[in-house]
Design goal:
With about 350 residues, this protein is α/β, with parallel strands linked by helices. The chain has twelve helices and nine strands.
């Protein structure tokens, strides 16, 4: 009879430290293999019985997942932020791999979702667009910071316009500073066309997905937001309810309560003291949080969302909480539209989604 084996891997650029536990939790093997597909596959084939493998979400995690999933019974890419056990005891490659195997055997790991092949190209294009957008914004901030460091005020986007650059450069008295800003202008001129190309490629790829067309019917979900939403969520059936999507998107309220139950007259009853709130959950997908919050902020100024927000404020809800509620509503509507394959209906906006 072949018994299950639990494999913990500590991935590095050149080598991977592996610890193998048997069904009773004893260390059956500890070894180091090259971080190469052939070496890893050869090692897995040398083991008998059902194999369960885990490794943390890192730069190489997706590659590793694609390599091993055809040779094991279970492959879990785990969230390193939740692996608190790794913070105890010695910190080294072999103890880390052994602790990962222990967590895997005990069923204490939470897997990180890695999506389907159908959206892989869209995911890469979205990442490329985000990278170029961040680089462009960073370059613009650097240019303005140099002017401000020399006491020159820069309002709006006039400082970036090509027709006005010579006038702005003449305001810099030091030749070295002027040359430095000229180089930054050249870099900005290269980034902008690349960002535009990345945007067009991302949107074109997004349009190939049926969900893109459905989500586009929702106000404030434009082509860019829809492409990012499809690439990030991948499938709406990851989330059984809207509350799970809220938590994943950083829109869930974190509450705190201690001594929740007490005994009265020999019976266990719930304590009625108020529940303390601790803001929104921070362990979330930042892309989705920015997406839904951005859609809510922009949508609160126009219909059909403006009436919805005004109705919340008339009930005594603060403006910032009304916008948060709208962001949660947009997320819930997107989940429903995607799951049911229907278009957006403004008449259902005030209904419970």
């Amino acid at each position: 009879m072949k018994f299950d084996k639990y494999i913990g891997c500590d991935l590095h650029q050149a080598t991977t430290v592996v610890a193998v536990l048997d069904a009773e939790g004893k260390v059956a093997m500890e070894t180091i293999v090259a971080t190469e597909a052939a070496a890893i596959i050869r090692f897995l084939k040398s083991l008998s019985g059902p194999l369960h493998i885990t490794f943390e979400e890192t730069t190489q995690a997706r590659w590793m997942y694609d390599v091993v999933r055809g040779y094991v019974s279970e492959a879990i890419v785990c969230d390193p932020r939740r692996n608190k056990l790794l913070g105890e005891g010695s910190k080294a490659d072999k103890p880390d791999a052994r602790k990962l195997a222990e967590l895997l055997r005990a069923g204490l790991l939470r897997p990180v979702y890695h999506g389907h092949e159908a959206t892989r190209q869209l995911k890469e294009l979205v990442r490329g667009y985000e990278t170029l957008s961040v680089d462009t914004q960073r370059m613009m901030v650097r240019i303005k910071s140099i002017y401000r460091a020399h006491g020159i005020r820069t309002f709006g986007s006039a400082v970036y316009q090509q027709k006005q650059r010579e006038q702005w450069l003449q305001l810099l008295s030091e030749p070295g500073t002027r040359q430095r800003v000229s180089w930054l202008y050249e870099e900005l001129d290269h980034l902008r066309p690349l960002r535009k190309q990345a945007k067009m490629a991302m949107v074109a790829e997004g349009r190939k997905h049926q969900a893109f067309r459905l989500l586009r019917t929702i106000p404030q979900l434009g082509p860019i937001r829809c492409a990012m939403l499809v690439a990030t969520v991948d499938t709406p059936y990851r989330f059984r309810t809207k509350r799970q999507l809220w938590a994943y998107s950083g829109l869930a309220i974190v509450t705190y309560m201690s001594s929740e139950y007490e005994i009265k007259a020999g019976r266990v009853v719930r304590n009625r003291k108020p529940v303390a709130t601790r803001g929104l959950n921070r362990n979330c997908n930042r892309r989705l949080k920015d997406l839904f919050i951005g859609a809510a902020v922009a949508g609160s100024r126009s219909e059909p969302y403006r009436s919805y927000v005004e109705g919340l404020q008339q009930k005594g809800i603060r403006a910032e909480m009304a916008r948060l509620t709208l962001a949660r509503k947009i997320a819930a509507v997107a989940l429903r539209v995607w799951k049911k394959g229907e278009t957006f209906d403004p008449k259902k906006l005030n209904s419970t989604t």
